[in-house]
Design a protein that fits this description.
Elements lengths: L2 H22 L4 H25 L2 H39 L9 E2 L2 E2 H25 L1 H20 L1 H11 L4 H39 L5 H12 L7 H13 L3 H26 L8 H15 L3 H26 L1
Antiparallel strand pairs: 1-2
Helix pairs in contact: 2-3, 2-5, 3-4, 3-5, 3-8, 6-7, 7-8, 7-10, 7-12, 8-9, 9-10, 11-12
Length: 329
């Protein structure tokens, strides 16, 4: 058999085995991708601890505890509170009476519009969060897989980078640059846009609590998610909330929510994001938008973060391939 044919057969076998591996790991792809995203971000924390403890094992375990306390714990708590509020709000919106609000838009009473939109969204959210809550064992196993991978990614990043460099079809210089670009993009997106989105969601939730709008934790979580998507944003929640309060007679509450959203929540995006994003690589809004849609359909909620990063990485890989071909020709 010719050597060229042997290479193609070997490549086909590798692709087939890789596809089977992906299919087998499909239930845990979200956890695996989350580990690949968060490990490089917390790597500086691991190195800082390592310089003081002088023990890779202890430094890795300490970093995992920090990730649990800083990221996973708060998000899980807010998610649990949001799930409780979904169940309460769904019934409240169903019981909303047209007599309470005498205002029409496009020939429909406000409560009718609220019920139609809110019921559909809350029913979808309740089913989604309910599926996560009902699959407790799967969720816990996914978290275990994520932390297990992060532990070894923190300790053996250099060895992993060496393996990736050997596998990538580029020279060592371009392979190194591709990995550096991925680190910069992931840090820029997660730390820059992610922290800004969390801040907007938190400030929006605080405003809802101050002015007495129900479901503060739920809508804060939704505002944070919407803040990650270009064109969309937290205003899609606090503007209707303020208008609804004014229309229902709670004028002070509604005006307060609108002012709070315009001044506090919006300024968090305009003032905080440039500070956090300084010296970080951002992701183009078009890539972010398409990546979010693709990520949600493929990976669920974690796709909001993973989707844009994968999209950007694919484009960077294609650009690197074209550059290397141009250099060799």
């Amino acid at each position: 058999m010719k050597p060229e044919s042997t290479r193609w057969i070997s490549l086909g076998i590798v692709i087939l085995l890789f596809a089977l591996l992906v299919v087998g790991l499909k239930p845990y792809l979200s956890a695996i991708l989350a580990a690949l995203v968060f490990a490089p971000i917390f790597r500086p924390v691991y190195l800082w601890i390592l310089t003081r403890l002088k023990s890779p094992t202890a430094a890795a375990w300490m970093t995992l505890v920090i990730i649990l306390l800083v990221a996973v714990g708060p998000l899980a708590t807010v998610g649990a509170l949001a799930l409780q509020e979904v169940q309460t709000l769904t019934q409240e919106y169903k019981d909303l009476s047209p007599d309470k609000i005498n205002l029409t838009i496009f020939g429909k009473n406000i409560p009718d519009l609220v019920r139609e939109g809110a019921e559909k969204f809350l029913d979808w959210l309740q089913s989604s969060l309910g599926a996560i809550a009902s699959g407790t064992v799967r969720v816990l196993l996914g978290i275990f897989v994520m932390f297990y991978l992060i532990y070894y990614l923190l300790r053996e990043q250099e060895r992993l980078e060496q393996v990736i460099t050997e596998l990538l079809p580029f020279n060592s210089k371009n392979s190194r640059k591709l990995m550096d670009d991925f680190y910069r993009i992931s840090r820029g997106f997660v730390l820059g846009q992610g922290l800004t989105a969390l801040l907007q969601g938190a400030l929006g939730a605080v405003g809802f609590l101050i002015f007495g709008f129900p479901g503060a934790f739920l809508w804060g979580l939704v505002m944070a998610a919407l803040s990650l998507v270009p064109v969309l944003g937290a205003f899609l929640i606090w503007v209707p909330a303020g208008i609804l309060q004014i229309a229902s007679g709670a004028t002070t509450s509604g005006v307060g929510i609108l002012i709070w959203g315009a001044v506090v929540v919006s300024c968090a995006d305009n003032l905080v994001r440039p500070i956090i994003m300084k010296n970080m690589a951002g992701v183009h809004p078009v890539i972010t938008l398409l990546g979010v849609f693709a990520g949600l359909s493929l990976f669920g909620f974690i796709g909001i973060i993973v989707g844009p990063l994968l999209f950007a990485l694919v484009l960077e890989t294609a650009r690197m391939f074209y550059k290397e071909q141009a250099e060799t020709s």
